[in-house]
Design goal:
The chain is of the alpha/beta class and about 220 residues long. It is built from ten helices and five strands, in the order βαβαβαβαβαααααα. β1, α1 and β2 form a beta-alpha-beta unit. Keywords: DNA-binding, Phosphoprotein, Transcription, Transcription regulation.
Length: about 220
């Protein structure tokens, strides 16, 4: 059974999500928080598997709440659920340690699948959506595409093939697409992805995408 804490300042939104969870086998809502500080407190008390986190809430916002929940070192993972026009905030939420990002207009089955994915340590954001999200923000804050990327210490441990895989992840390719373009089997790609995540210290694929941007391997124009 996967336990879920709902953090959203809109009562109707919380009620709708709670009803969905209560009607879904394998998921149990364990609490509702109306703002970030309450989410942090309840996450510490209830130790849910997943927190569904809104971003814009009164007082402490969802980004800071996410950062504190992740920093606590517990097993609770955070899934951001917000509107796409808040792309900058969503990006910062992922940097704060969220395990995924979904839009509030996601279909019920997408939200359920996202919760299960985050609970098991997977990334939720689809590669195409990941790229749209990062493209919308990083072109304003990262170096131009023609600038020489600084050699980040995290990249020095990667083999040439692993670096290629990290670039592909950053460009939003799925494992199947990486396998096809690099002429590898999907099982081999999965092994490479696992090694890349371990070497760069990324919790999941989303953090690997962010690393690819931060280190200059991928830019918003690439």
């Amino acid at each position: 059974m996967t336990t879920v804490l709902i953090a959203d300042d809109q009562p109707l939104q919380r009620m709708g999500v709670r009803m969905l969870l209560e009607g879904t086998a394998g998921l149990t809502p364990v609490g509702e928080a109306a703002h970030g500080a309450e989410a942090v407190r309840m996450a510490a008390e209830l130790r849910p598997d997943v927190v569904l986190m809104d971003i814009r809430m009164p007082g402490m916002d969802g980004i800071e709440a996410t950062r504190r929940i992740v920093a606590s070192g517990g097993r609770t993972r955070v899934l951001i659920v917000t509107t796409f026009d808040l792309d900058e905030y969503a990006y910062e939420g992922l940097r704060a340690g969220a395990g995924g990002f979904l839009l509030k207009d996601a279909r019920p089955e997408e939200l359920v699948a996202g919760i299960h994915a985050v609970a098991t340590g997977d990334a939720v954001v689809a590669p195409r959506l990941t790229r749209r999200l990062l493209d919308a923000y990083t072109h304003r804050v990262l170096a131009p595409a023609d600038a020489a990327p600084a050699e980040d210490p995290r990249l020095r441990t990667l083999t040439d093939r692993e670096r290629e895989v990290l670039v592909a992840i950053g460009q939003g390719w799925t494992n199947a697409e990486i396998a096809q373009r690099l002429v590898l089997t999907e099982s081999t790609v999965k092994k490479h992805v696992g090694r890349v995540l371990a070497k760069i210290g990324a919790r999941d694929r989303i953090q690997a995408v962010i690393t690819a941007y931060d280190t200059g391997l991928v830019s918003a124009k690439s």
